[in-house]
UniProtKB/TrEMBL annotation:
It comes from Streptomyces cirratus. This is proline dehydrogenase. Keywords: FAD, Flavoprotein, Nucleotide-binding, Oxidoreductase, Proline metabolism. Its EC number is 1.5.5.2. InterPro entries: FAD-linked_oxidoreductase-like, PRODH_bac_arc, Proline_DH_dom, Proline_oxidase.
Length: 307
């Protein structure tokens, strides 16, 4: 069971220092996080959109400890949005935001995160795009959903993420499957206790299907975040059964994972959005990708040995 151990390491400062300093880390990291700056990620966005894909951009850096860092995170998104707007990419690229990066875990964090995310949502709307609030560990979700509801009063297109592994999520899906809402369903990437989350992969997949059904039969806009071929096929079936046209839902996958499938779904006429993370503080994001597929860790370790 390597996954949980890697997720535990993703919270360790000592491991962060070791992994970040390892000379061979960079090429492996680049597979999932293809740039550190706006200048490096813009050509990636242009390349993806030329191929008929859409993009959601995540500036990595969830582990902040000061209010100043939360402001810097807000400013990084504002800079990104300004550049996308200048290039006319507003209709192709949206933002994914982790509220922890906007200060949610600091004292007074709920208000701070809301104050930081609001100008980002406003700026996104001004260039014709939107923001989706990522789901982090379960202790943060009541605050995330409250911020989502608050933002939707002025910007109803603001999206949020729900995680199939949590027991609470079916109820959240029912509440969110309303007209105009944009909801990304994912399996869930954090280490969660058995009191709140399914631990068994098959149970998580079954919950994912139940939740997709709620979203597809609802009145919102479902965003299917998964690389799992079975779930993608079931999503297509559920969409057909619910009478949805191809532009009434979308698929989303992570940059660097099953790239050929991104192109296949887009070629079939589906909306396909690639979640593209960039920035310097990539440790937490990178470790979650290793935890999802232990073969990634073996590849990483092998590259350290053969270097
Ligand atoms: P899995 O059963 O894990 O994988 C299915 C297949 O996909 C695997 O067999 C493998 O071939 C491939 N695959 C999956 N992951 C990897 C990997 N890391 N490396 C290589 N191949 C892989 N989680 C959250 O908790 N909160 C979020 O806000 C969030 N946002 C996301 C946004 C998007 C667009 C996506 C796609 C995922 C997001 N996740 C988020 C992560 C998600 O919760 C899962 O951890 C991740 O998607 C793996 O689950 P899966 O559905 O792809 O299925």
């Amino acid at each position: 069971m390597l996954g949980p151990a890697i997720l535990a390491a993703s919270r360790s400062d000592k491991m962060r220092r070791i992994v970040s300093a390892a000379p061979v880390t960079k090429p492996v990291v680049n597979r999932f996080i293809p740039g550190e700056t706006v200048d490096q990620v813009i050509p990636i966005v242009e390349d993806l959109t030329r191929k008929g894909l859409e993009v959601t951009l995540d500036v990595v850096g969830e582990d902040i400890t000061t209010v100043e860092q939360s402001h810097a995170a807000r400013d990084a998104y504002l800079e990104l949005i300004e550049r996308l707007g200048a290039l006319g990419l507003g209709d192709k690229a949206e933002m994914s935001v982790k509220l922890s990066m906007f200060g949610q875990a600091l004292p007074g964090g709920h208000e701070l995160a809301l104050a930081n995310v609001r100008p980002v949502v406003e700026a996104a709307a001004a260039i014709g795009t939107t923001v989706t609030l990522d789901a982090e560990d379960h202790t943060t979700l009541d605050s995330m959903f409250a911020i989502h509801e608050e933002l939707r009063r002025d910007f109803p297109q603001t999206g949020c993420v729900i995680q199939a592994y949590l027991f609470r999520t079916e109820a959240d899906a029912r509440r969110l499957a309303a007209a105009g809402s944009r909801v990304r369903i994912v399996k869930g990437a954090y280490k969660e206790p058995a009191e709140v989350a399914y631990q068994d992969k098959a149970e998580i997949d079954k919950a994912y299907v139940r939740i997709m059904k709620i979203l597809m039969e609802g009145e919102g806009y479902p965003m299917i975040g998964s690389h799992d071929p079975r779930l993608i096929a079931i999503a297509q079936e559920l969409a057909r059964a619910a009478g949805r046209k191809l532009d009434e839902y979308e698929f989303q996958m992570l940059y660097g994972i099953r790239g050929e499938e991104h192109l296949r779904l887009a070629a079939e006429g589906h909306r396909m959005r690639v979640y593209t993370a960039y920035g310097t503080d990539w440790y937490g994001y990178f470790m979650r990708r290793l935890a999802e597929k232990p073969a990634n860790l073996l590849f990483f370790l092998r590259s350290m040995i053969t270097k």
